[in-house]
Sequence to fold (752 residues):
Amino acid sequence: MGAAVLAVLMAAALGAAPNAPAYSRDGLPIETLEVPSPAMGRNIRVQFQGGGPHSVYLLDGLRAQEDANGWDINTAAFEWFYESGVSVVMPVGGQSSFYADWYQPAANNSGAVTYKWETFLTQELPAWLAANRGQDPRGNAVVGLSMSGGAALNLATWYPTQFIFASSLSGYLNPSAGLWPTLIGFAMRDAGGFNPQHMWGPTSDVAWRRNDPMVNVGRLAANGTALWIYCGGGVASELDTGHDFGGNFSAGYLENITLSTNKEFQQKYLAAGGHNAVFNFPPKGTHSWGYWGAQLQAMKPDLLRVLGVGVAPPPPPPPALPVPAPRRTATARAAGSLTPRGRIDERPSNRGCRGCGRDRSGRAVRLSRGHPTRRGRRPHRPRQGRHHVGGVHHHPRRAADHTAGPGTPDAPGLQQRLAHPSRPRILGDHRRDGPVADRRRLHRRSLRCGSVRVHPRRAGAPRRQRCAPRRRRRRHLHRARGRTRARRLTRRVRQIAAWTGDPVWLADVLRAEGLTVVEHPGWLHRGHGDFRDIRGVMVHHTGADHATAASIADGRPELPGPLAQVHIALDGTVTTVAAGVAWHAGAGSHPDLPTDRANWHTIGVECANSGTGPTAPHRANWPDAQYAALVGTCAAVSRRLGVGAAGIVGHREYAGRAQGKWDPGAIDVDLLRRDVAACVPLAPGCRSEHVRRLQRRLRDAYRGYAGHLAVDGSYGPQTEAAVREFQLRTPGLRADGVVGPATAVALRLAGG
Fold:
């Protein structure tokens, strides 16, 4: 398309930006100031709303009017920042000025006017506001759109102390390169009849490069300025309702060609070491005020955080709870004190216990010896009263309120883990805790209380010599049992983490995703056996653009079908082929899958595509409908399995080394996982790398209420609370604590 046609569309788009009145409500403290500008030789009108010592400067677009700023005409920006702790500054005028210092007077259709906007915004206006409105000339924010998007970044580049936050909304971020000088010239002539050479001279002049954010991205990254960069994909949405078709088309086309410069700016910013920017490139969005207003609201929490107002400081970490000293109750006093060996003196209380050999007065009574065990022992079994041994309490009421000191059982058969100050205890030690330790304490108690436990054949041996071999044998036995239980528990957790059984729900979840689904005849009963546990999705291409679902179901002579569970055609039609195991993976290995056994643990997705070649760029020869269906299929299955986008595996990632596979061709699996992650919600209880990315994003960008968040990949209560707080502060989001597609876009977890 020629430059002239592009310029016509650009001018039409800039002229089509709606001017429907959306003034803020009455009663707001908005002032219209006349600020003198010696550099421009006249007073400049400025709309101002006080709210704090720091300000946000809202710059207008190419067709700026002389009566009011476009932000006030087309949005409720004053109302959005009312009582936020930040003042709002809206310079009025500056049509086609790019908010720069021009070389020559700006000659337009109405005459000539001096443009020294950079001087006014960085010297004259801050000084006047500081003297007359108490505004701090440092630590402010600047937001620009369209024409002023690049100007906002330029101001932050050259005046980093004044502007610590800068935002470009649909801005032209490479004005000195390619056709952009020509396009800008056409647009300036259409919007007032201005000549771009009066602004920065010929395109070879250094001023063009000085005012080019792309050229100076390294300086901007080194400044550490917080950035918010937005550009839509050129597709209209509900925010364009009521606009004429021509306006929507031209605004969409202009946004689309602007998007390429914004993405290039992102790449160069990251390459320069930048780390303090938000890049938001949603698929929908045209060059119009509805989207810019929505972005201003979305960036507000970040803006306030950077300016240090409107948000509470992060809560201090909870203090460490002191370890309480053991309560020395009547029970503990009756049980005695610590012996020189560090053990509790296990003298029985004289409060009476049937079977202990003494009554309440201490007189000897008949022993209740219980029943003999297999080894001829007669264990002591107290039935009522209290008996204090090693801190163990057997009175029903005392056992309920846990007042017996160290070693109190907190449930039947369980030993409370309390460490006595003079006798450290290792948690989980089978020699000191648990039912075995309880039995040993009862054994020692029976010896002191008079119950007879004498081995008939070894009665003459000393007690320690008689019992040591048995203690060692039991010690090794219970250590082995503990390891066995741990292994069983690990296996159980791994099984719970995946779906067990055949995916008979495939067709239902794919339809729920909004996909066009066809059920191949007999698919529910087709397969090479049953699944073990399903851990994710494996993506393939068939090698031919027109491979049918029947060919996947029937297979080949050397490899009988089914060859996958799902088939996706070029037009995006999804066919369920089999519910059982399919031969699609073969030999291979992957960290999350058993070696050579992926068929029993993954759902195979075959896409009817030639794959183009092993080195083809991402999505080459992949129709939009087919790729969208692939993303939807992976998202639906991942959501049903609860594994997230991390469960998506490319066949080449699994079998590339073992079989030389390179499918899916022309698909960057990392980018596929990124696109799927935007569709798979993150909810409390899940663990994945995407949760870690969410936590890092919340902690770094929203420190006011998420600065204390731990980045551990586990979606716990703290992460849920931070997500809810973000949703409450972001208009249009439901505060449910779940990161769905809308919240992911608002958090900039997807796209770009």
Q: What stands out?
A: Residues 689-746 form one domain.
